[in-house]
Amino acid sequence: MEKKFNKATFAGGCFWCMVKPFDQWDGVESVISGYTGGHVENPRYEDVKTGNTGHYEAVQITYEPDKISYQQILDLYWPQIDPTDDQGQFQDRGPQYRTAIFYHDQEQHQLAEASKQGLQASNRFKKDIVTEVLPASAFYPAEAYHQDFYLTNKQEYDEDRAKSGRDEFIKENWD
C-alpha cells in the first residue's frame, strides 16, 4: 500500500526554532525551513531578512495523515509561539517573523480557524490572538545551511534559542 502524504505550513518566527518541535513525531516525513507568502520569486535569506519581500520565515511539514493528523500538528504549533504578537516573535522583529498558519485545503482551513477561535475563547492570553490563517502559496526552501539547523549547528542554535526568550515564554504560558 502506497503511503499518502500531506503538507502543513506554519510561520512561527525564526524557522530555526520551528523545525525541532515537529521533526521528532512519528508520521512526520520532513520539516523544511523556507519562505512563503511574499511577492518575490525565489527569495534568498538576504532578501527576506530585510522585511521587504512580504515573505514569512516558515516551515513546511510533510506528514503521513494515517499516523499524525493535521489537528495534532496544529496542537503542536500553538505552544511554540506567542500568538498575540503581530510584530514578530521574541527577539526576532519584523514582518518576516510574524506568525501564520497557511492552509493547503478547505479541511485545514476549517481546522485552523476553529483552533484559533478555541484558543481565543480559552482566555489563556489577555490580548487577542493575531496569528493569521492564510491560503498556502509558493513555498521556497531556505538555503541548505538553514535546514535542520538545530542538528547541524547545535551550539549556535542553542545559544540563539537561549537568548531569544522563547523558552521562558513557553514555560510561562504553555506548560
UniProtKB/TrEMBL annotation:
Catalytic residues as annotated in Swiss-Prot or TrEMBL: 14
Enzyme class: oxidoreductase
Gene Ontology MF term list: peptide-methionine (S)-S-oxide reductase activity
SUPFAM superfamilies, per the entry: Peptide methionine sulfoxide reductase
Domain Peptide methionine sulphoxide reductase MsrA as annotated: residue spans: 7-158
Catalytic activity: [thioredoxin]-disulfide + L-methionine + H2O = L-methionine (S)-S-oxide + [thioredoxin]-dithiol; L-methionyl-[protein] + [thioredoxin]-disulfide + H2O = L-methionyl-(S)-S-oxide-[protein] + [thioredoxin]-dithiol
EC number: 1.8.4.11
Keywords: Oxidoreductase
Gene3D superfamilies to which the protein is assigned, alphabetical: Peptide methionine sulphoxide reductase MsrA
Pfam families assigned: PMSR (PF01625)
Function comment: Has an important function as a repair enzyme for proteins that have been inactivated by oxidation. Catalyzes the reversible oxidation-reduction of methionine sulfoxide in proteins to methionine.
HAMAP family linked: MsrA
Protein family (similarity comment): Belongs to the MsrA Met sulfoxide reductase family.
The name this protein goes by in its record: Peptide methionine sulfoxide reductase MsrA
Organism: Gracilibacillus salinarum
